[in-house]
Amino acid sequence: MTPVHLPDRFGGVRLVAVSTNTIRRFSIYRRLLLPLLRDGRTRICSHEIAALAAVGAAQVRRDLMSLGSTGASGRGYDIQRLVESIGTVLDGDTPQRAALVGLGHLGRAILNHFNGRRPNLAITAAFDVRTDRIDRVILGCRCYHLDALPKVVAEEGITLGILTVTTGAAEDVATRMIEAGILGILNFAPIRLRIPRQVHIENLDMTTFLETVAFFARP
Amino acid sequence: MTPVHLPDRFGGVRLVAVSTNTIRRFSIYRRLLLPLLRDGRTRICSHEIAALAAVGAAQVRRDLMSLGSTGASGRGYDIQRLVESIGTVLDGDTPQRAALVGLGHLGRAILNHFNGRRPNLAITAAFDVRTDRIDRVILGCRCYHLDALPKVVAEEGITLGILTVTTGAAEDVATRMIEAGILGILNFAPIRLRIPRQVHIENLDMTTFLETVAFFARP
DNA sequence: TGTTGTGAATCTCTTCACAGCT
DNA sequence: AGCTGTGAAGAGATTCACAACA
Predict the structure, then answer these.
(1) Interchain pair A98, B210: CB under 8 A
(2) Which helix (H) or strand (E) holds A99?
(3) How many helices (H) and strands (E) does chain A have?
């Protein structure tokens, strides 16, 4: 779906199309590979990744194909190399920074969840409009008034926005984010944002998830 | 994908296959229809739903087909009827109850998010192992020690579990949930649970979402 | 005229199956 | 013997396009 430039095995560059689903699975693969790497494992085969990720082995091999030839026939994949290759795709060559807007329960939970975990992808600033939530450090993150968004985004080179405000405020805050130059938004508010241009929106609607489980788990 | 029994327009019962994606969209459609209904709107056409939900109009009509004939050619859909029909599919005929395990930041955020919103789908009990988090009421929800899970699940007829514990504890807690008789789990821990049987798992991995936005929003 | 309901076509994603490498 | 990489087949989801309807 989306074209990506990847180094090939000869030091050149390949252009590959990668689908959203594959990107999601890359994120999953990497996360389950990292602990194995720390435990000293060096090689793994597609079947084992498949079992850990709860997908098919052919699916895993198909996904890993778009990383360029990283496996060795008959011997599986080198975990270290796999993690690096996935990193090349997911992380790109420059670290990215995110701004979180909305310091309610959910916003704090997310700060807490991501804090200090990944150096390539950190939430470096948070915003709200309530005075008791700004001009201080919450869970290791500096908090500003929403009006400071354009300034801080520009100064820190922030490219991502995390939207954890109420439904009513979401549309307005999204617009402000985009005006400030943000390129992608992770939206927790239960509405579909109407966006002007080529900004990427990922909707994470917890209610939809809960209703979906409820449906499939009916007695 | 999954067969559902629905009332047809003659008072009989139809058996229709509904895919996961359609279920997710039903949840979205209903949420955007409810405010319109409260504003006194009575009719809506597929194009308008499509615009609000950010999907195609043909997609909307295709989805609504599985509700049985609810639209009227040339005049759109009756919103009231639509909401009821979607409710028939999503809510079934009995209310469902959920138990949340893990009263950290994320657990509290979720309690806060769902509290009192939907009568058909409520979190009626929460669990943890830390003594400062149990035997009290947090955000309107009664909190118990994890050991009380089987008892409370049985007494209250709980069918759903929400998993907001650490990665290390997730597998064990999921097993306990299933042993207690829970039929579906909404898992926020960033691992793929290995589940014995026909329990439905929905994984909501925030890191995967953030990494996905980061990928598609690269400068 | 404007809109639904739907067969058919298209597009996308997943799985199969096996040649080729180690 | 065991595993990767991949063309081809299969399954699934989306979109097109239009007849039937109000």
Answers:
(1) yes
(2) strand A96-101
(3) 8, 12
The rounded distance, in Å, linking the Cα atoms of B35 and B77 is 16
CA angle B194, B197, B200 (to 5 degrees): 80
| Residue A204 CA distance to nucleotide C10 C1' (Å) | 29
Compare B69 and A79 and report the one with higher pLDDT: A79
**Structural tokens at position B166:** 């650490």
**Is residue A170 within 8 Å of residue A153, measured between CB atoms?**
no
Q: Do A114 and B207 touch (CB under 8 A)?
A: yes
Is the pLDDT reported for residue B27 higher than 90?
yes
Burial of residue A152 (CB within 10 Å: 0-12, 13-18, 19+) is middle
Is-contact A14 A6, C-beta < 8 A?
Answer: yes
**B46 CA to C1 C1', in Å?**
17
- Four-point Cα dihedral A206, B6, B159, B100, nearest 10: 10
Determine the nucleotide nearest to A43 by Cα–C1' distance: D3
d(CA A126, CA A97): 11
Question: What is the pLDDT tens value at each position of chain A, 219 positions in all?
Answer: 677 766 554 555 666 779 999 999 999 999 999 999 999 999 999 999 999 999 999 999 999 999 987 788 778 999 999 999 999 999 999 999 999 999 999 999 999 999 877 889 999 999 999 999 999 999 999 999 999 999 999 999 999 999 999 999 999 999 999 999 999 999 999 999 988 778 999 999 999 999 999 999 998
Tell me if B69 sits within 8 A of B93, measured CB to CB: no
Residue contact A205–B162, C-beta within 8 A = no
Phi and psi of A108, rounded to 5°?
A: -65, -40
Task: Give, as ranges, the nucleotides of chain D with any atom within 7 Å of a protein CB.
Answer: 1-7, 12-17, 20-22
- Residues of chain A neighbouring B31 (CB-CB closer than 8 A): 190-191, 207
The alpha carbon of residue A215 is apart from the nearest alpha carbon of chain B, in Å, by 6
> A204: nearest CA in chain B?
B209
Rounded CA separation A3/A31 (Å): 23
- In angstroms, the CA B73 to CA A174 distance is 36
Cα–Cα distance between A135 and B200 in angstroms, integer? 44
A50/A53 Cα distance (integer angstroms): 5
Indicate the angle between helix axes A79-91 and A20-38, nearest 10 degrees.
140
Which pLDDT does position B13 carry in this prediction?
Answer: 64
